[in-house]
Amino acid sequence: MELNLKNEDLKTLIQCANSLKQQGFEKEFQVVENGLKAIDDNRIYSPEEVKIIDNFRFEDECDPADMSVLNVIETNTGLKGTLVAVAGPYANGKVTNFIGRVKDIYKKRLTMKIFHEEKDTYEMENDCDWGMLSL
Fold first, then answer.
1. Can you give the pTM of this predicted structure?
2. Cα distance between residue 46 and residue 67, in whole Å
3. By CB count within 10 A, which of 16, 36, 56, 135 is most buried?
């Protein structure tokens, strides 16, 4: 999925979030004790049920240590939205851990996909009908 954002959409977190809402990422997510949930919904998603489409980092002009990351998220049910995570020294450990788990799961899935694709290619390249060979 490709996001359609222009440079002016990326100047502030609010501008970026508003542009993403116009592209269908309307929900605002929050991390709760058991996972991730949309603010206006009670359904809780585990890290296995969440995909991070993209993320954007924003720094406060007055205090560069004050950073936020806008995560663009889609759930396995098709719910789309954003999760704002504070980065740096003010980071929320619960949010950081959840995002880290989602990224780890994605890396494992990607590794498995590559492994299976390479295995399938190897098997196709080395698949030989030995009955066709004659001496």
1. 0.75
2. 25
3. 36
Q: How far is residue 102's CA from residue 49's CA, in Å, rounded to a whole number?
A: 9
**Are the beta carbons of 20 and 82 closer than 8 angstroms?**
yes
Please classify residue 23 by burial: count the beta carbons closer than 10 Å to its beta carbon, then call 0-12 exposed, 13-18 middle and 19+ buried: middle
DSSP one-letter code for 11: S
What share of residues in the chain are helix, strand, coil (percent, to 5)? 40, 30, 30
Evaluated on CA atoms 103, 105, 110, 115, the torsion sign reads positive
**85 near 91, Cβ under 8 Å?**
yes
Instruction: Return the structure tokens found at 86.
Output: 């504070």
Q: How far apart are CA 99 and CA 31, in angstroms?
A: 9
Burial, 21: exposed, middle or buried (Cβ in 10 Å; 0-12, 13-18, 19+)?
middle
- Give the end-to-end CA distance of the chain in Å, rounded to a whole number: 53
- Rounded to whole angstroms, the Cα distance separating 8 from 14 reads 11
Average pLDDT per run of 10 along the chain, which is 135 residues long? 70 90 95 95 95 90 75 96 88 90 87 66 50 43
